[in-house]
């Protein structure tokens, strides 16, 4: 509970002003929520996630089920702080974050590669900037999208701006940033305008795994279906906290009842991130709005754990591939 | 988040003073909690449920799993506001609500039939008035009672009045309002005075499905068992929010640990309301007490979703039976 | 606690689509918070204020100290519902609200005059639209601005847009909507960029009464100073809930410790609104953000009371001027 | 924080079944809230008040300003537990509590006198039973009524029962239990049906001190006015927690903004209870509803302190009159 | 909701000062949290658990699935109040609680045997004192340890004291209090220092059942595995509330996402406590920290239910063994 | 709301490992609460205070009433992070913090003097280490102690350790760290063991200003009395957040009703810190326990403001003495 709160007590460098700084994994906060359609407050997500990660102590973060301690490994992980973002203009904020994400992605790993981008949101719209940056390095990626919602809606349905937390995956597709035949939604259960939403979504290259599907497939079946879809792709994993049931993650802006539990999600994330043919190039955790969290801060804990699980798989695979601590 | 909060932004008419108003489905609040035995506050349930329904926007409420948008269909749905009810006297309140429910049930659908009565509670006692009104139109109905509790207890056990939220189903049976051989409890897990409670309950015509039974039967098995019981009957569906686990629905007066999740409940409700031989004539959602809800208002969200799921099934079946939007 | 929640149970007409509707006083919600600089959430202010006003029952709302029941008087008061506003674009929202406020101000009182505009915010930026509308009818008005903050800051200090909840009074001045020599800040205690802020503010025509000034002047002295300033003017009264101490009104976006209490504020409002030479033409209550309110909803109660006190004074003066209930 | 929670760790005897038990001061809980008009929950008041009193440790409860430790003195103080009360029927509950209070008042002090009755409410209606019991021993008493509300309203205004938390002082007057010329309201600020409420109240024998009067009189002036009124009378002191500002005591059912602070109230209570000619014969603290209290439990703390302050004055006066610890 | 809060309204005797008092089951609170590593507050656990048990009314506590009412049976159950414990020194507190637990265990049952010890924690460290006391009577016991954490960590990892809530099972092993080949962890999911933690744990005699294992084994399989391990042993059951998912039990100090639900836990507890060859000699419920619980007090409810379920099994087995109410 | 949370966005250096780092003012967190007697949780005080200071932006922190921006001035202010402290042993923690505070005080200002020590607590016991460190540089200091409590109690009254948050000023006196004739308590209102507490306190060199004294003296009178006492001394200012009324600062461990408001405290702090003959050498803000704060985080805001006000006075006086920004 002590110390300036960086994520998991990791070292902090404000990477945006230190271009020569190297790291294997860059954590960066994107405190923005102007693209939210209902309850705002995700601008405080980065603070909440860092607070929620304080029991992740590098010296005691061995993940027994994955078989690795992601914070004591070959990987140099840096908490790059937050991107300065205006809340007054979505357009300007999009420009600001795009530029910052791109800047992060120009950094090198100690061995000269490109780092894994890990964003602490912020509402879900921040993925557009992140995908632009990832795309610049990696080209088109497949998106694994955990969410209760589609987020591929046509901007026409929205008043005031095309850039919202319900449309940015549609925009990403139009900009050619992502695959048009290998993306996946997982945890879906939103109401729709109509079945046309699904047709549009399919055309944009998405496979849909609904929240209730896990009752038929089991976590294992969900993993298989996702891995099948992503196999051989560069993958960007995006985790909207509203994937989880509101009982598990009340602190979010557009909660949908009937979601997954963290026991399920941990299994699924472990399965996917350690799968052989899935190459992770970026991830985010978004839509954590602490004003709606409960006194025990369970939403923030869940969000911080999502990062821990994904990093565990990523670092484990590096380890298996022969990477060693310097 | 804008606008005067009617349920799901539906049109509001104070039906009690507009006898000629027609509707296929009448929503009406019953803000009453004097029959509560432990934590009061369900008198604010109607307000909480309306607030919790605000993301149910008629233009975007297509239920993908049911295949219908209940708010954009053949059905004319009206939010009739609340019944004015005293909190000082259970007896007087019972008279007030009985008269109001009966008044609602004298209204006609646009095509000349009887509307579906949907009550936003209030504590569970309000069902007695609703059943009296439904009975006047439909005769004896089978009750599908989602609840952690029996609510068929003998009024002798209670001090001060026979009319409480633990006895009203017993009273309904004595008044001959409900079937004496085809009712169902679902989600049951309350402690008892003794096994005699179950014997009495059976004699009153109830089948009991316990909360843990779903672990053996699955949601599908639960649906089958219920549909088997209700087949061919006119059914009144009553949903006590304490059916849900306190983690899912903390905002209630007599929470019982070990309940169902909304993922389970959504499946069950879909299965039952779309079953061929089950004819719904009324429903309620009761025991939402927002003072005990958490900051994310998850209990209210769950309660509002219960209404959405039941209406989806009801409207879908109407659609399948050939009903069309005017 | 029963019934669809209009403000103080007043009759609801969606005035924006009913141009011929008359009223002496129009209440209208402006659910918007995209111009907020810190904690968002004031978009839920109208809902919170309406909930907080539910114990203001027209039949029992006699204000003993003012000597009037504002809800049972000569004045026809209508709750016009909320203005539909986008949260995605400040510019578009400003256009939307300007047009709506202007529309409201084109309505007539039953006796053919112009109604009093009462806005339920929303963040403070909504005043710009309101002042545009009021100005169209009344010309330049003096603004009585209760706030911990100046809100006359130069838009240059803000990134992304000139239109924020800290600059809109500066914009109003530039647009010529308000007096340049008779405005008043009351309750001020914000930190500044520097003393230049005060020089700019003075040049824009403002007198500043600091939060601590009441300890020297007393509530009576504060009233005198304000009335002296406003005497003979048409006055628009704007009440930022952060005028109050955070202990009294925690539910707001940019709280400043050391504010006023409601006992003080009630006295001040009574003094000003019943003063002979002060002619009120509009008011608002802004910056109520219920996500930060406490379980007892004290911020919403305070905000609703501010409306009640101002309306009491306004109606009383009408009564003294000979207005009678129809 | 340890031990079974009796009030201030005082010894517990369930006095109602121990008629020969003696005590100088009897504390008894009245967990009842069916006579509440808005937010219920005061039935949990006794539990909250006992929890809020846990830092009142008998060995360290010396009140420096009064000059006494009420829990280590001549006075034998017993926590008598709670009266078993139904919530289902106001009438029956009134009978139950009347009988219990009368039973308590038949107990003797160790020296053969009558004990001081101290009730932990419950909503305010419980005073009627308490006054009946006090009246049986002491005849007509003057009531010192701290409250934001009148509570002398005519039962005609209420639907369902004459016995409510807004009418019971009217009923007490009709029953001849209290003085008809020496009662006092302190802290008053409720809205009225009309000025007739004040006329009725005056006729029932009440003097009114409004919440804002303290700004003119000071705490000292308030004390003088009250003592002047009560001088020479047997006095029953009733403290509705809504006397306090909602910022100070949010956990209550019918909060009214603009109330007193505990710093003011402590001074006033000390002044009155140590005044020479005021003879206290009973007291209560009512309307504490913990569901609306904040996480820091400040309402319960305030309520428990009111008891501590009154007992300090009472015990001090006994000490000055020569009473000694046995 | 009425009455001084003893656990489940059971009779209270402060057993520590009444050595001749007999009981079959002793409930005792251990309000201590100085051995907590993260969020403190479990010192208020006993108060919270007693409040959370108030709906367990002896006359209506028949457990239908176990077939017994533990509070109306052969077993005399006493709430012994709390052990007075310092918070300032872990060492002194350990001495205090050891002595108190030993004192409780010297009491006799009405029929001359040794009582079942039931401790309401407090943080988990309190088990060390309890095990010392149980060991004095029963010799080495097998520990069934429900927890997200190992709690067998080597004291070397901790700074300041060997006695913490993460090391006390290691200490218990070193003191020879517990079996070194038949203990079980259930619900485990903590991060580790490294796999060495598991090796140490195994050497100390522990079997580990992870939180996710239930997804493969089912509750039934978990029961079988545990019973297999404990068969024929005297068993001490310790329940750390963080076994439960944070959604189910947010009110605890070191929450770990991905835990069990109460529906699962109830099944498991029933299975184990009614198993033929498992002889229970003591239990505790620990780590309930109400400051982090939500407004609905769901953590306290869950903790109180754990006690109820274990007592149900224990009393049922006594009944089956021929014990009868006196 | 963005960025890693240092206090007021000030630069962070972990000073304890950077001995050559210079600063005029060192902020350092002391996350410790094992010396707390009632509600623990102040170990999270530093995190809460840093979060509560986020609206103190260096570029816009001009204090209009003091006439200075403390964060844009001659003073180099550094957030030194937190002292690593065990929670398991008060004795060890005292040694750890003493050593850390002494280390901080060996640092130099850029101009070669000694820095001002500003500690973010932690419970109040942390002052003992701070006073040891300050004493090493400055010799005996006068303590200005804002608190509801004496904190000079004799360690004999406490069980387990002499070092608690109620005794450390007594210990400081015995160690000769502080003046024995010029200390001041301000805001006092605690209950006592007896009047002997005051005699002891006087003998230890303290003057007592009670909470209610401000009603007679006014804030100005309080300032005068304090300045009179401290004139010509080196002063250490300690601010226990429980000085404030629980309505203003609910988030603390031993709240006492009837405290001061922030409007009063701001005046008093300004008066004292800008007084000519008062030389500040250190300060702390202690006892902020966020688990008990409300959703609006008002306690943290108040605590952060106390730091801002004291620094404003300190920096202003430096400015008046001719110090200039480098
Ligand atoms: Mn999303
Ligand atoms: Mn989503
Ligand atoms: Mn029910
Ligand atoms: Mn129920
Ligand atoms: Mn403003
Ligand atoms: Mn403001
Ligand atoms: Mn009252
Ligand atoms: Mn009242
Ligand atoms: Mn444990
Ligand atoms: Mn644990
Ligand atoms: Mn202190
Ligand atoms: Mn203190």
Give a verbal description of the structure.
The structure is a homohexamer of 326-residue chains. The mean pLDDT of chain A is 97. Chain A is globular, with a radius of gyration of 18 Å. In chain A, strands 2-1-3-8-7-4-5-6 form an eight-stranded parallel beta sheet, with helices on both faces. In chain A, α2 (90-106) packs parallel to α3 and α7 packs parallel to α8. The first copy, chain A, is α/β, with parallel strands linked by helices and 326 residues long. Chain A has eight helices and eight strands; from the N terminus they run βαβαβαβαβαβαβαβα. Chain C binds chain D through residues 1, 55-56, 59-65, 67, 69, 218-219, 245, 247-248, 261-263, 265-267, 294-298, 301-302, 305, 308, and chain D through 38-39, 191-195, 197-198, 210-212, 215, 245-247, 250-252, 254-255, 257-259, 291-294. One manganese (II) ion (MN) is lined by residues 124, 147, 149, 151, 165, 240, 287 of chain F.
